[in-house]
Amino acid sequence: MKLALLEELTAARAAKQPVALVTWLDGRDQRIVTKATAPAGIADVVGDVLRLDQAQVVEIEGGVLVEPHNPPPRLVIIGAVHVAEALAKLGSLAGFAVTIIDPRRSWATPERFPDQHLVLEWPDVGVEQLALDTRSAVVTLTHDPKLDDPAIIAALKTPAFYIGCLGSKKTHASRLERLAAHAGLDRLHGPVGLKIGARAPAEIAISIFAEIIAVLRGAST
């Protein structure tokens, strides 16, 4: 790789911009692209490669290798509750950059969430400050509409790939009724998590994170 490309790749990483390294296997060219700047014929492949974090070879022009260079995905948790503790650990273990948003300072403490980014703001303010992108997942856990609803409304205005809401079917139905005036409610995953019979907080966290990964990787949920 030429020094100029390496510097461009380093700058993209610093800016947390997802890019792909495109290499013509016959040696004619190598460049860094986004889906928007990809050469004709491989833009969709670049989009898939970045979404799936998996390199692909395109059988055109003698073969073109497309390699992803993504920033870490982000997991934004609304509510510093018991499920959040386990979910934050899972996210960190899987390489996600985890943020917990909760204005309740007695809940969102470094002792409960060591090495995690804590935002002690009202949820909608916190979500807006984070400037979420297509590599971001949001999960609301408080069971309190005063906290969850503003976060959901703010998240729906972003391209976050996943927005999940804890609660029963009845709770979720009430949530959809309250938020009926807002566009994009079909993006909400609720009740949140895969149906694995989860009961304990750690089990619920596993079901939620499994669903996040399934959506991120394009698997059926």
Brief characterization of the structure:
The protein is an alpha/beta fold and 221 residues long. Helix content is 36%, strand content 19%. Helix 3 (82-93) packs across helix 7.
Highlighted features:
19% strand; 6-stranded parallel sheet; single chain; alpha/beta; 221 residues; Rossmann fold; 2 domains
**CATH domain topology of the largest domain:** Rossmann fold
Distance between the termini: 39 Å
In which order are the strands of the major sheet placed? 7-6-5-8-9-10
The structural class is alpha/beta
- The SSE string, one letter per element, is HEEHEEEHEEHEHEHEH
CATH superfamily of the largest domain: NAD(P)-binding Rossmann-like Domain
Describe this structure in words.
The chain has 221 residues and is α/β, with parallel strands linked by helices. The strands form 2 sheets. It has a 6-stranded parallel β-sheet, with helices on both faces. Helix 3 crosses helix 7 and helix 4 packs parallel to helix 5. The longest helix has 16 residues. It is elongated. It starts with a helix and ends in a 5-residue tail after the last helix. The model has no long low-confidence stretch (mean pLDDT 94).
Protein topology:
Elements: H1 3-14, E1 19-24, E2 30-33, H2 43-52, E3 56-58, E4 64-69, E5 74-78, H3 82-93, E6 97-101, E7 117-119, H4 123-130, E8 136-140, H5 145-156, E9 162-165, H6 169-178, E10 188-189, H7 201-216
Parallel strand pairs: 5-6, 5-8, 6-7, 8-9, 9-10
Antiparallel strand pairs: 1-2, 1-4, 3-4
